Amino acid sequence: MSNSCDTETIEAFLKLRTDLLAVGRCILVERQKNTDFLVSAGLTETHVNEEIGKLTLANYSSGPEVEHQAPYDEVWIFGCDIDTHKVYVKVVVRKIPDNRPLLKVLSFHEEELGPLRFPFR
């Protein structure tokens, strides 16, 4: 599951991410794992958006990969450090009926399956 791609493709995704954040087109998917982490770390959805906005090439772990629930979407995996937490970040850009892309944060919680690899660090 950990395929990696070239820096140009990643930078293009990061630019799209920045553009979507700037116009409020980013949502955190409500999952128990995400909620539990935010509560335990004392974070809010605003903090999540700030951290998503700080992601760089150095935070890239893998992707794009096909989203198993929506095969036309591409999933990206990043990681970041927040205080003492190693955070697993899984995002997807979703096209919705109005054809305006939406950045969905599928996962934002502590790493669980061992440390992420960061090919550009």
Report on this model:
The protein is α+β, with helices and mostly antiparallel strands and 121 residues long. It has a single domain, classed as YaeB-like fold, CATH 3.30.2310.40. The chain has helices at 7-22, 32-41, 45-54, and strands spanning 26-28, 60-67, 70-82, 85-95, 101-110. Strands 1-5-4-3-2 form a five-stranded mixed sheet. β3 (70-82) and β4 form a beta hairpin. The longest helix has 16 residues, at 7-22. The protein is globular, with a radius of gyration of 14 Å. It starts with 6 loop residues before the first helix and ends in an 11-residue tail after the last strand. The mean pLDDT is 90.
Attribute tags:
alpha+beta; YaeB-like fold; 121 residues; 5 strands; 3 helices; 5-stranded mixed sheet
Fold topology:
Blueprint: H1 7-22, E1 26-28, H2 32-41, H3 45-54, E2 60-67, E3 70-82, E4 85-95, E5 101-110
Parallel strand pairs: 1-5
Antiparallel strand pairs: 2-3, 3-4, 4-5
CATH class (first level) name: Alpha Beta
What is the strand tally?
Answer: 5
CATH level-two architecture: 2-Layer Sandwich
Supply the number of structural domains. 1
Give helix % range: 25-40%
Oligomer: single chain
Q: Which strand order does the major sheet show? A: 1-5-4-3-2
The coarse silhouette is globular
Structural class: alpha+beta
Report the end-to-end length measured between terminal Cα atoms. 19 Å
The fraction of residues in strands falls at 35-45%
| Pattern of helices and strands | HEHHEEEE
Uncertain runs are none
Figure out the total of helices. 3
Alpha-carbon Rg, integer = 14 Å
CATH topology: YaeB-like fold
Average pLDDT, all residues: 90
Largest sheet: 5 strands, mixed
